[in-house]
Amino acid sequence: MARPVIRYVCQSCGANYAKWSGKCDSCGEWNSITEEAGSSSPVPGGLGKKNVRKGKQIEFVSLEGTSKPVPRMVSKNLEFDRVCGGGLVPGSAVLIGGDPGIGKSTLLTQILAALTNQAGIKCVYISGEEAIDQVRLRARRLGLKGDDFLLASATSVRDIATTLDEHDAPQVVVIDSIQTMFVDSLDSAPGTVSQVRASAQELIQLAKARGFSVLLVGHVTKEGVIAGPKVLEHMVDTVLTFEGERGHHFRILRAVKNRFGPTDEIGVFEMSEQGLEQVSNPSALFLAERRGNVTGAAVFAGLEGTRPVLVEIQALVSPSQQANPRRAVVGWDSGRLAMILAVLEARCGLVLAGNEVYLNVAGGLRIGEPAADMAVAAALISAAMDIPVPEDTVVFGEIGLSGEIRAVNQSESRLKEATKLGFKNAIIPPIRAKKNCNKAASGLDTRQIEHLQDLVALFAAKSVKKTAGG
Ligand code: TYD
Ligand code: MG
Q1: What's the pTM?
Q2: Are strands 398-399 and 405-406 parallel, antiparallel or unpaired?
Q3: How far is C-alpha 432 from the geometric centre of its chain's CA atoms?
Q4: If you take atom 22 of ligand 1, which residue's CA is the nearest one?
Q5: In the predicted model, what is the mean pLDDT of residues 259-271?
Q6: Which ligand has the nearest atom to the CA of 249?
Q7: How far is the CA of 154 from the centre of ligand 2 (A)?
Q8: Does residue 376 come out as left (phi exceeding 0), alpha (psi in the -120 to 50 range) or beta?
Q9: For atom 25 of ligand 1, which residue has the closest CA?
């Protein structure tokens, strides 16, 4: 028999303590440790039972041999399928995190309908957050029909497990959300670390045993990480995040972990009156409101997963009276901005110290690639010198601390995307002889920049022309 024990668990990181304390030693969070009572085995009648004294021998096999290709359930929603690595894998567990109101329930409702209609896959949607009527209302708004998939409102993992174990199990199950689920053998409230962990474990085990794919919706904390223990992310096969800026209508589905496909793939959607629409050409969307020939704006040819995406980077430099002028960044790393400012100052003599500097990635996309360095620098130089970046130009390249421009991966596909969208010029890192990025290959006039100074000189030359020309 499992003995009930009292544990003190940090709600932030999941660390266990024998007694209460005000600060968690493991993650440093204050006031995050709460008492949780429960059996020492988190799974009711589960895991622990099988460990009767001695286990059996496990078998080792060679690396070579034939394995069946992973079967996939394809929704024909290309954006979603791509992020999953080509469709949902039967028996897999997928965790989808995102801010409240971003559209997780909408996305999953649409995906279930697509799976049912396109592939005749049996799906169920279990909501612990909304009443049946609310889910129905959403489905009606999305134009779905009554026979698309089945609905239920439940929060007890025991009830859910019993139901899914008895009927001929559906092939895809959505749990919205894992934070509302509870295992009745634990005393703690739904949403606590131990409840989330136990509920997820139970549901994932059932999914593996029955061969259905389970999609768990996970809340995110205000820091942007999925609420609950980090182990949740380890337990599932795939972690997707659904992100977007409030006030912008497009949303990005991103794979951050995927045992069945590549990570860093993105799917782009646009939230409309009729739900989420797929965006097959994100570059066009991100550049839609761009106006040519303004200062402080550069188009970055970026890469999201395997997909080239063009976005505009905007900078504003304005004089400040303050001792510590403001630096504000949206959509890019503020540490990296500080580094580029330092390099511009130390290596190129472009002093921005007495100025406020604002940087914005237009459209609300978040860029993590160091390849955006040179586009950021171009926007900053353009803003500081009040000279526009040459028209129809894309920029990419990583900047090193000595000001050297470093090559980035997949230059060809970045240039190809720029050509497709009608750009004529590209400012890029030096190309090693073997690679072929010349005009013939990409259709663009490329200018290779070796040092950040050369980029500043490029703008300075234009400024001379501008004053000379009147
Ligand atoms: P929802 O899927 O409920 O978000 P989440 O589950 O992530 O909390 O959707 C949230 C928002 O989306 C809601 O504020 C209304 C908006 N929305 C649309 O704009 N169009 C639509 O067709 C639907 C269904 C929702
Ligand atoms: Mg929801």
Answers
A1: 0.76
A2: antiparallel
A3: 32
A4: 275
A5: 86
A6: 1
A7: 14
A8: alpha
A9: 275
Distance CA 441, CA 75 (A): 36
The residues, ordered by sequence, that sit 6+ positions from 227 with a Cβ below 8 Å of its Cβ are 179, 191, 196, 218, 219, 220, 221
Q: How many angstroms is it from 273 CA to the middle of ligand 2?
A: 17
Specify the residue with its C-alpha closest to ligand 1, atom 15: 101
pLDDT band at 342 (very low <50, low <70, confident <90, very high): very high
Relative to the alpha carbon of 99, which ligand is closest?
1
Q: Which residues surround ligand 2, an ion (CB under 5 A)?
A: 105
pLDDT at 51 over 60: no
One-letter amino acid for residue 422 of the chain: G
Token readout for 201 is 């474990």
> Binding site residues, as ranges?
98-105
Helices (H), 259-349: 282-286, 334-348
Cα 373 from chain centroid? Answer: 20
pLDDT above 50: residue 43: no
Q: Is any ligand 1 atom within 6 A of the Cβ of residue 141?
A: yes
CB distance 101 to ligand 1 below 6 Å: yes
Tell me the residue ranges of DSSP E strands in 100-186. 123-127, 150-153, 172-176
Residues annotated within the binding site for ATP are 98-105
At 450-470, the pLDDT tens digits run 999 999 999 998 877 666 654
Give yes or no for residue 241 CB within 6 A of ligand 1. Answer: no
For the residues 20-31, what does the mean pLDDT come to?
A: 86
